[in-house]
Amino acid sequence: MRRIDDERALWLAANVLPHEATLRSWLRSQRLINADVEDILQETYAAVAALERVDHIRDSRSYLFSVARRLMVRCLRRKRVISIDAMAEIDLSELQTDEPSPEAQADDGAELRRVLEQIDTLPAKCRRAFLLRKVDGLSQAQIAAEMGIAESTVEKHLGKALRLLQALCGRAQTDASRPDVAPALKMRDVTTTRKTRY
Amino acid sequence: MSRQLEKPGIDQIAADWVARLDGRVASAEEQRALEDWLAGDERHFGAYMRAHAISLQLGLLLSHQVKERSPPAVEPSRRLLSRRQMLLLGGGSLAAGIAGIAVFALRSERDYWTRIGEVRRVPLPDGSAVTLNTQTHLSVAFSDLTRTVRLLYGEALFEVAADAQRGFTVTTFGTSITSSAAAFAVRALRRGDVQVMVRDGEVQVAESTRAAPVSLRANTAVRAVIPSAPSVPAPLVTEQLAPIEVARRLSWQRGLLSFEDVTLGDALREFSRYSDTRVVIDEPAISQLRVVGLYSASDPVGFAKTAAISLGLRFEMRDGVAHLNSA
């Protein structure tokens, strides 16, 4: 059984989430369709979350990129849609030369604070249920009593709130309202039927 | 192809799972269903951990911001500032402002807090009273049906007046303590570590990862530690105490700290809650020495001098900082 561990989740929040937007745009600049980008991101989270230990990781950004690159190569190989030559072309320059920008280093919590700024964009009941849960620490049953709705409805509101908030994470500020639009569409993106996530 | 069509669902399903199990124990059935889903594809585990990370961290940011919310409450006009202006105010205060407003809109509450070293007794409208220890922040919300106090941070003694209609509930860091009439102290200095001690009466302690609440009678204490793995219920260890020990643990009400065979390191950590004056131990071994006694909470230097004498240590002031060393 995979370990679902709060401590590791908080480590992910501090060390992976802040780099997710950069990682996503780097993956998109490679020969990948959006669905593959999302696959690789999920696999990257899974790989890091499943590590026995993380205390040896000094530079989480470089580490993430190396994991993501390995998963990308595996993804491409599995699909056998491109030649070995193309694989060799995969842009490594970003990894080797691009140091974390000062603002990226400055504040690991900035990403989620940016997301919290948009908490008012949640539907009213979603937001209320979410805040009662997270701020007041009420249980789902207590929220149901407080809001005068069924517990199963509370669960739906909480699920929706988290879905919407997490969809804002790891997307650059400018395209947060259109999270699935890549900055520069590649030919293959255009030919793929993309499903709008939110 | 079908994989691509169903793919956008993974993040959503993960978020639903995380939200559903947030702060409670999964039933055996849910546990099985979740494990099946996670085992189905490694991306599921990745998406789940991502959603879990976001959920936890957002919760921490929100509760932290509420904790930091300082009087007077954030003026609503701040909301009208542009994003750019707000960024100039600093990211922290910006987000805090927004969360603060959101919370204020939810319910009318009265907040009480104490500064470092301050102890304050507050009578509540129902005849109950709450005594806040140093650096404590709590929020009181009474209605016709409920009496609820949220302890955001710190330590407080609740003396609850009987009310047949309305229970009295203290919530803090995922733990709730309910009583109809009792006197009990709650200490919540870290997330996931809540200590409850009952002086009179009886209370029910419910911890979010456990199914059944625990009943606590007078002169007992319990410590609720939320485990790192949410699926494993924390051991709630109940401790029987002599009445004199209960009184000793509440000596902070009178501005006193009472130690009964604790390490010097722990004693100094306790003092650091009550003042900004620090006593430095230069040799780690010394911090394991044990101390006993009743001291003024506001006088860590006086404590250090006394400890030096009783433990055979050397006390000195260097550059205005108290140091304890072996003689």
Descriptive report:
The complex is a heterodimer of chains A (198) and B (327). By secondary structure, chain A is mainly α. Chain A has helices at residues 6-15, 17-28, 34-49, 60-79, 84-89, 93-97, 102-106, 110-117, 124-134, 140-147, 151-168, 187-191. Residues 93-106 and 174-198 of chain A have low confidence and may be disordered. With 327 residues, chain B is α+β, with helices and mostly antiparallel strands. Chain B folds into three domains: 10-95, no CATH class; 110-241, Jelly Rolls; 255-326, Phage tail protein beta-alpha-beta fold (3-Layer(bab) Sandwich), CATH 3.55.50.30. Chain B has nine helices and 17 strands. Chain B has helices at 2-6, 9-21, 28-40, 42-68, 83-89, 91-106, 243-249, 264-272, 300-311; strands spanning 110-113, 120-123, 129-132, 137-142, 147-159, 168-172, 175-179, 182-190, 193-207, 214-217, 220-225, 237-240, 256-263, 279-281, 290-296, 313-318, 321-326. In chain B, a hairpin with a 6-residue loop joins strand 9 and strand 10. The radius of gyration of chain B is 23 Å and the shape is globular. The termini of chain B are far apart. Residues 1-7 and 67-108 of chain B have low confidence and may be disordered. At the A-B interface, helix 1, helix 3, helix 8, helix 9 and helix 11 of A face helix 2, helix 4 and helix 6 of B.
Provide a quick synopsis of the model.
The complex is a heterodimer of chains A (198) and B (327). With 198 residues, chain A is mainly α.
Strand content of chain B: 25-35%
Helix content of chain B: 25-40%
Instruction: Please report which band the strand proportion of chain A falls in: under 5%, 5-15%, 15-25%, 25-35%, 35-45% or over 45%.
Output: under 5%
Oligomer: heterodimer
Distance between the termini of chain B: 77 Å
Report strand order across the widest sheet of chain B: 5-6-7-9-8
Q: SSE order of chain A in H/E notation?
A: HHHHHHHHHHHH
The low-pLDDT segments of chain A are 93-106, 174-198
The biggest beta sheet of chain B is recorded as:
5 strands, mixed, barrel
